[in-house]
Amino acid sequence: MSLYALLAGNGPSGFGYGSTAEQVTEGLDLNGAHILITGCNSGLGREAMRVLAMRGATVIGAARSLEKATAACEAVEGSTIPVACELSEPASVRACVQAVKDLGVPLQAIIANAGIMALPKPQQLFGWERQLFVNHIGHFILVTGLLDSLAADGRVVMLSSAAHKGAPKVGIEQDNLGGERGYTPWKSYGQSKIANLLFARELARRFEGTDRVANAVHPGVIATNLGRHMNPVMVAAMSVAKPLALKTIPQGAATEVWAAVHPDAAKISGEYLSHCNVAKSSAQGQDMALAAKLWEISEAKVATL
Ligand SMILES: NC(=O)c1ccc[n+]([C@@H]2O[C@H](COP(=O)([O-])OP(=O)(O)OC[C@H]3O[C@@H](n4cnc5c(N)ncnc54)[C@H](OP(=O)(O)O)[C@@H]3O)[C@@H](O)[C@H]2O)c1
């Protein structure tokens, strides 16, 4: 456990910075629940899948290819179903939606966990900046495509990040969605993560009056494969900070797992969660007009794909 985790203590939920995914699910029996998670083959997604399956859930583990998903699913004990979902390819995401629908089971939770971070050079997919497309549009197609399969009290968990606070001043640069009018790796990552947050807020608004909930999560700062594009100086700084300040992967997976299955999170909706508690996002991350606008332009974009 890091020094910070020892000092931080727990929040109102009874959990906090140092809580692990195993701890936040202790005593829970998830038998009968089906939970879909993207990015199941690495980092936080792999640990979340392991713990959810250990507690009895059937985890539908999505990775970029069926081979990767199968290998990841075979590596954990419990009930898992591998599916392919390449978020950069709408056809793959739609095929994943169909494969999950074909299972004919209600989903207790969808955890939109997969992501990429800080691509050094601007890249576009279907005219949108690649991080915004993969992290947001890919998951937009997946989650909206599966709403019919979400249980009446189902939960949607979007992996955002504290890095959403580094998004452009306007939150979403509607006049620069392709990044051609200026690109910086972290700002674009921040934009994609505020998009994940705003999507969760707008989805929660659409869920009002039902028992479904949607939330966004900052998992903490954890050394995973996500840092593959970081420059060597940042990587070195992180390895020095690791024992002091960084979360471990079991701690990093705790908030998404808590949001997806803990009984105390069943009525929390439209929130930004951090360290297994409700937290405060940036002002733009609370802007419901921007959330509605993002939904509208995402829906319009998806209709062209
Ligand atoms: N680690 C942190 O400090 C941190 C902090 C804040 C937020 N987060 C968020 O937490 C989530 C999980 O990150 P992590 O740290 O566990 O990172 P990770 O170890 O790099 O895992 C990311 C997962 O996303 C998958 N992925 C990447 N591109 C994809 C695509 N085009 N289609 C489908 N899947 C794709 C990866 O698959 P491959 O292995 O095949 O590439 C991998 O399974 C991300 O959304 C990230 O933004 C992490």
Structural commentary:
The chain is of the alpha/beta class. The protein has a single domain (about 5-300), classed as Rossmann fold. It is built from eleven helices and ten strands. The strands form two sheets. It has an eight-stranded mixed beta sheet, with helices on both faces. Helix 7 packs across helix 11. The longest helix is centred in the middle third of the chain and has 23 residues, at about 185-205. It starts with a helix and ends with a helix. NADP nicotinamide-adenine-dinucleotide phosphate binds next to helix 3.
Q: What is the SS-derived class?
A: alpha/beta
Please tell me how large the radius of gyration is. 18 Å
CATH superfamily: NAD(P)-binding Rossmann-like Domain
Fraction of helical residues: 40-55%
What distance lies between the first and last C-alpha atoms, to the nearest angstrom?
45 Å
Give the count of structural domains.
1
| Tertiary shape | globular
Classify the beta-strand content into a percent band: 15-25%
Q: Tell me, what is the CATH class? A: Alpha Beta
Quaternary structure type:
single chain
Q: From N to C, what is the helix and strand string?
A: HHEHEHEHEEEHEHEHHHEEH
Q: Based on DSSP secondary structure assignment, what is the total number of beta strands?
A: 10
- Largest sheet: number of strands, sense, barrel closure: 8 strands, mixed
Mean pLDDT: 94
Bound ligands, each once: NADP nicotinamide-adenine-dinucleotide phosphate
Low-confidence stretches: none
Order of the strands making up the biggest sheet: 3-2-1-4-7-8-9-10
